[in-house]
Specification:
The complex is a heterodimer. By secondary structure, chain A is α+β, with helices and mostly antiparallel strands. Helices cover 19% and strands 43% of the residues of chain A. Chain A has one domain: CheA-289, Domain 4 (OB fold (Dihydrolipoamide Acetyltransferase, E2P), Beta Barrel). Chain A is globular, with a radius of gyration of 20 Å. In chain B, helix 1 packs antiparallel against helix 2. Helices cover 45% and strands 18% of the residues of chain B. At the A-B interface, strand 4, strand 5 and strand 7 of A face strand 17 and strand 18 of B.
């Protein structure tokens, strides 16, 4: 009886697993957004949530791109301005401005972006490695995803969340 | 007696815990007989119990465990392989050990139950001598015993107890075994009766006869014959020769050692609980804040009363809950104090002095994490008191003091902190000597020495590298110890106070907050930012006039009663943007840490609040001067000041030169370069105003109420040349708006024009007070308004039309 049951369960499991695998192999899901004139993407799984701008508190003796900390339902989370981090001129928050809360293991940070674009699935073979000539020390780009009409710079989560001061 | 009883209790708690583990280990050992770790663990249990029981004079238990230890030690070293036969004996001895412990728990000694350990001891001896069990015929039946886990409950029926290998016993052994079982049984009966008596049941006192066990038997569901079924050569149990098992009850009640009911809990779980409570406290703070707002808005409404009740009961329960959880983390400081009498004794011998340690307040409780850190500093302070404080006997006699020096170690609660006081009646500290020593070692400069007060001189002993001892002794003199004290106390946000009188003695007071996770803090404002200062470090707050601040060597100082206090602006330390104009008066928060004091100049004092410390996360860990963050009642994040780091930072912070970044007034090239803000809640009025100003061609920005206007002014997008303000507006009225705008130094000279229908003199007066530059009463002619604006903004073009 139990053997039979096991068998059934197993075959069900197989059915469930196989199509997913074949479909998902080599596909990365990205959430894309604009910072300045450039479109960036981060893996969807590293995003904890996306929120509208809320008030944050300045933290002294930090670089200017660290805007401070904000309260996300009881957790104190640092807020980093990607525009300033990427050495772009400051801009006032608009209705499109969002905070993307990114988590990598135990590290959580919020990032200010100008505008969300879309969530896409992209095949890994459509992603090229980051251009060689980029500055090694300050390289947050994991690769460049090619779309029909545009390219998306995919960000390296761990280097974004690494403190460099 | 009390002390002994306490020790016995501790011993029992510990022993039962170990045995619980032991049961598991033994089961495992059965399957993996070569596991050295397991063996070691079991050996340790035997060893520990032996040590403690011999100390407590439980001779029988000691003898048993001693022999067990022998066998286990051999097995552990590999001299003996644990086959099933040997295991049987080991298990038997462990069971017996349990019985003895149960007996100690119930009666206070191990002779009461009359458990006979001799047969087991003989077997154990035989094993440790020849490595074999005395009775070679013993079959490997150990596992059958294993399956019956041995519960150590005192009222458990006897058949639940271990079943030694009856089949392999000689007649004598069986006889002894029966006797043993009987005694255990009697013991249980006794315990049961006692329990009943304790529960208030009327139980007839059994006669103190040895066969009492039998009389009681019929009452039980499963009487003793059980073991008899499993074995053939069983003699009936009556044994009149047995020691009188039941002693008079009265005596027993005195000797009973009650085991404290405790549960050991992983500290992480407690921490988690504490975190949750923290969230709750934040929620409570928020609720209180909202209640205040609601109260203001709906004054006198019926439901307010109800809301008030709910809010206060929630806040009370939260506070109680917090206290309760905090209490679970509390340990008596006695745990730390207890090691000092011995230390003092040794020190006294080493130094050849007579020193007595008087401890009081050892029951004072402290958070576990603090208890762990407080030990080291105390050791150093006490060593110091003995070595440098208490004089040699000859000196003491010469000074007319008693031969024996006294060190008083005292702990007590004071508000939200605990104070530990270490006082000696030794020679005291000599400020002059301390200064000259420090000069010698280059710790301070001559100048500093001259300005130093006695208290500051005492504080020198905490400087790293400072030592008064002419030579380094075993006890002290390396100049490290007191530095350790300071660092550790600072870590706890504690304060050190030293008081000393030459020839009379020295008193060192450590003031330490009760707990670390939730603290009381003083909320202060520096310009537009708010910071929380741990209240434990705040000594006082004073309001001073700017004239009270003096500059000495480019540092700000003030005179606070007899002392000179160095001052530093909180805003300067944290680089807060200087946007507001500080008024004539300012607040100084005097903070103290360890032995230092510092005055922090802040712009506003918000008040005292209970805050929960939250970490800033990995990304912002270790920002200088910031200890963490907390979430306020309004949901905003406020940073908590790290007082120790702040004091360091303050030394390097020069008072920032008042750099009033004068807004660069751009040359106006066209009329539209002029910008005027218009604040009125009525759209109509705004239209009229707009129309009146049309001929000027200036750019006009509109706002519907004071708050909106303040936001527009503050965010700096527009540089306004003037502001037209209506007085009566929702959310924020014109007076408040004007006074808010005037707080910012960059708007100090911006023309503020009141446009209102309030015409009374007092209204006008108020307008002047809050900083209005013009006052236009409604209704007005368009020309009049235009001209006032024109004049105010220094309009330099000609008006069209």
């Amino acid at each position: 009886m139990s053997e039979k049951l096991q068998e059934v369960l197993k075959s069900q499991q197989k059915q469930k697993d196989t199509p997913e695998e074949s479909k998902d192999a080599g596909v990365v899901q990205l959430v894309c957004f604009m910072v300045g004139d450039e479109e960036f993407g981060v893996p969807i799984l590293s995003i904890q949530e996306i929120i509208k701008p809320i008030e944050c508190t300045r933290v002294p003796s930090t670089p200017s791109y660290v805007l401070g900390v904000f309260n996300l339902r009881g957790s104190v989370i640092p807020l980093i301005d990607l525009r300033q981090k990427f050495k772009l001129p400051k801009q006032k928050t608009s209705d499109d401005t969002r905070f993307i809360v990114i988590r990598n293991e135990n590290q959580v940070s919020g990032f200010v972006i100008d505008r969300l674009t879309e969530a896409i699935r992209i095949n890994e073979d459509r992603i090229d490695p980051a251009p060689e000539n980029m500055n090694e020390n300050d390289n947050h780009i994991y690769g460049v995803g090619k779309r029909e009409d545009r390219i998306i710079s995919i960000l390296k989560i761990d280097s974004l969340l690494k403190r460099t001061f | 007696m009390d002390e002994l009883q306490e020790l016995t209790q501790d011993f029992l708690v510990e022993a039962f815990e170990m045995i619980e583990q032991l049961d598991q280990d033994l089961v495992e050992l059965e399957s993996t007989p070569d596991d050295l770790d397991l063996l070691n663990g079991i050996f340790r249990v035997a060893h520990t119990i032996k040590g403690s029981s011999s100390f407590l004079n439980f001779d029988i238990l000691t003898r048993l465990t001693h022999h067990m230890e022998d066998v286990l030690n051999q097995a552990r070293r590999g001299d003996l392989s644990l086959n099933a036969e040997i295991m049987d004996v080991v298990l038997e001895s462990i069971d017996m050990m349990k019985d003895l412990l149960v007996c100690i728990r119930d009666s206070g000694n191990d002779t009461e139950a009359g458990i006979d350990i001799e047969p087991v001891v003989t077997k154990l001896d035989a094993i440790s001598k020849d490595g074999t069990v005395e009775n070679a015929k013993a079959p490997a039946e150990g596992s059958s015993e294993e399956k019956k886990d041995e519960p150590a409950m005192p009222v458990e029926p006897i058949e639940e107890d271990d079943e030694p290998d009856y089949a392999n016993m000689s007649d004598d052994q069986v006889e002894e075994e029966i006797e043993r079982l009987l005694k255990i049984r009697q013991e249980e009966d006794k315990a049961r009766r006692e329990a009943k008596i304790a529960a208030g049941e009327d139980v007839p006192m059994p006669p103190p006869s040895p066969d009492e066990g039998q009389q009681e038997e019929p009452k039980k569901e499963e009487p003793k014959p059980e073991p008899a079924k499993s074995e053939a050569p069983k003699t009936p149990p009556p044994k009149p020769a047995a020691k009188p098992a039941a002693k008079p009850k009265a005596k027993k009640d005195e000797g009973v050692t009650t085991v404290e009911q405790t549960i050991r809990v992983d500290v992480n779980r407690l921490d988690h609980l504490m975190n949750l409570i923290g969230e709750l406290v934040l929620g409570k703070n928020r609720l209180l804040k909202i209640y205040d707002d609601v109260e203001e808005r709906y004054e006198g409404e019926q439901f307010l009363e109800e809301l008030n009740q709910v809010v206060s009961s929630v806040s009370m329960v939260t506070t109680d809950l917090q206290t309760a959880v905090m209490k679970t983390r509390m340990l008596a400081i006695g745990k730390v104090f207890n090691k000092f009498p011995r230390m003092i004794r040794d020190l006294a011998r080493e130094l050849g002095r007579k020193i007595e340690l008087v401890i009081s307040g050892e029951e004072t409780e402290l958070d576990k994490s603090i208890v762990e850190v407080i030990g080291d500093p105390l050791v150093h302070i006490i060593r110091n008191s003995c070595d440098h404080g208490i004089e040699p006997i000859a000196d003491r006699v010469a000074a007319g003091k008693p031969e024996t020096g006294t060190v008083n170690l005292k702990a007590y609660n004071e508000g939200n902190s605990i104070v530990i006081e270490i006082a000696d009646d030794g020679k005291g500290l000599d400020p002059e000597m301390l200064k000259s020593k420090s000069l010698e070692k280059g710790i301070i400069t001559e100048r500093e020495a001259d300005q130093m007060s006695d208290k500051e001189a005492f504080a020198l002993i905490f400087k790293p590298g400072f030592s008064t001892a002419a030579q380094v002794t075993n006890v002290s003199g390396r100049g490290v110890g007191m530095d350790v004290v300071k660092t550790n106390i600072e870590k706890l946000n504690g304060i050190i106070e030293i008081d000393s009188e030459l020839g009379k003695g020295t008193t060192i007071k450590l003031k330490i907050p009760l707990t670390l996770a939730i603290i009381q803090a003083l909320m202060v404002g520096a310009q537009e930012e708010y910071y929380a200062i741990p209240l434990a470090s705040v000594l006082e707050t004073v309001r001073i006039s700017q004239d009270d601040i003096y500059t000495v060597e480019s540092k700000s100082v003030m005179r606070l009663r007899e002392e000179v206090l160095s001052l530093v602006r909180l805003g300067d330390i944290f680089g807060v943007e200087n946007v507001m104009d500080s008024g004539e008066f300012t607040y100084v928060v005097v903070i103290g840490l360890a032995e230092y004091k510092l005055g922090l100049i802040v712009d506003t004092l918000v008040g005292q609040e209970e805050i929960v410390i939250k970490s800033l996360g990995d990304y912002l860990q270790g920002i200088e001067g910031i200890a963490g963050a907390t979430i306020r009642g309004d949901g905003r994040v406020t940073l908590i000041v790290d007082v120790a780091a702040l004091m360091q930072l303050a030394k390097n912070t020069k008072s920032a030169v008042e750099s009033l970044n004068e807004s660069t007034t751009k040359e106006k090239e066209s009329p539209s370069d002029y910008k005027v803000l218009m604040v009125d809640d009525s759209k109509m009025d705004r239209k009229i105003m707009k129309k009146s100003m049309e001929p000027l061609g200036v750019t006009i920005v509109e706002a519907g109420d004071g708050q909106e206007a303040l936001g527009i002014v503050k965010n700096g997008e527009h540089q306004f040349d003037a502001c037209l303000i209506d007085i009566e507006m929702p959310k924020m009225d014109g007076y408040t708006l004007a006074s808010e705008i005037r707080k910012y130094s960059r708007f100090k000279h911006m023309p503020l024009i009141a446009v209102t229908s309030r015409t009374s003199k007092s209204d006008r007066m108020r307008g002047v007070e809050v900083g209005m530059s013009e006052y236009i009463t409604k209704p007005y002619s368009p020309d009049y308004l235009m001209n006032v604006v024109k004049r105010s903004i220094n309009y330099k073009f000609s008006v069209e039309g």
